[in-house]
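Quick question, first post here. What does this chain look like in 3D?
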Amino acid sequence: MDLARLQQLLTRDEGPKLDFKSQLSLRTEGEKKELSKLVSAIANSRGGRGYIVFGVEDKTKRITGINPKNFQEEKIQQIISSRCTPPIPIRVDVLLIQGKHVAAITIYRSDQRPHQLQDTGSFFIRRGSTTDVAQRGEIASMLQETGLVSHETTPIYRANIDQLDLNSIFSFIPGLQHLPQDALLLNLTSNGFSYRDSDTGKTHPTLGGMLLFGKEVEKYLPHAMVKLVVSKTGQLYYLTGTVLQILDEFQELITWHTKDNPLPLSSLNEALANALVHRDYWQLHRYIVIQLNPSWISITNPGSLLDPDSLASGEGGLNHPVRNPWLFQNLITLDPKKRFLRSGLGLEKMRRDLPPQLVIKFNNRPEKNLFQVIFHFNTH
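> Answer (accepted):
Ran it through. C-alpha cells below.
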C-alpha cells in the first residue's frame, strides 16, 4: 500500500472489498472477533484484493487519524489467523496523509475460500457495504470455485436413472449399449453421468448428466431454464431441456424474431454457449435471461467471472478458470455443431470476431454474482 493507492481508495464508496473505520479497538474478545469476521467476509467476497482503512470516517471521508502503535502487523495477523480458517493472507501499512496517520489492512485475494470463523464455524460475505452470513448456495459456489466440490457430479436424488436418455448416451459412447445392466450403471457412474447411493443401492442421475442427457430437465432443474424476453412484442419464452436443446431452440427463436433484420447468429450462439457452460448452477433461484430489444440484445448470466482481473487487464478471459470444467469438456465432444470449441477462447476474441454491425460490451458484477454480455446494433 502506498499513498497513491490510499488516495484512490478515499475516492471510492464502501463496498464488498472496501470498508472504512475511524478507529480500531482490540481490547475485548468481541472486538477481536468483529475484526476477524470483517476480514473473512472481505476475503470470501468475489473480486480482487480488499481493504479496511482505519482513521477515516466512512461517510464524509474525513481523516480522523489513528495511533500507529495500535497497528502492529504481527499482532493483527495473530488475532486473525487464530480465529479464521484457512489462514487469510493480509498486510498492515501505516501511512501519513494530511498530517495524520492512517492504517490500511490489505486482504489479498485468496485461493482457499471459503474462510470461516473457528469458534462458531460460520461463513461470512459482504453484501454491498454490510457484512452478512453466507447462504448455503454461496458457500457451495465458493467450494466449487476452489475445486473442493463439483456441482456437475452432484446427484439429483429426486430423479431416477430412467430420467437419462440412454439412446443419446449410447450415441455419445457407443460401447455402452451392449453392456449388461450392472456394468452399464457402473460405467454411467464412472463417467460422472450418475451416482450410486451406497446406503440405498439406487442410482441417480447427476446434475451434469441431466444437463447433457436429461429427459425432463425443467422438472428437476427448473433454474437451468433460459428466459427470453422480446421487448417489442412483449412475448416471453422459457427455453428448457438439455444444454444442446436450449441452444437449438434459441437459434430457431432468434432467427424468427430477427428475420427482418438478420443478425450474426454465430456471435449470439457463442455468447449463450458461454453462459450455459459457465453459469453458477448453485444459484437455484436465477435463470439466464436474454432480452431482445430493437437496438440491443443482452444475455445476463448467474455467475460472475472467476478471474475478474483478466477482463480489466485486457486478457478478456483467455485461459480463465472454468466454473464447470467437466460439463465444458463433455459438451466439446458431444455437440455435433461444435459450438463449444469457441466458448473457451476468451471474451476479447469474441469482441474481435464481431461483424461491423455489432458492438459488444461485457459487464461483470461480482458483488451480485452476475455476468452480462450486451450486443448493440451499430447503425452508423
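The chain has a mean pLDDT of 88.
The domain at 220-377 is CATH 3.30.565.60 (Heat Shock Protein 90).
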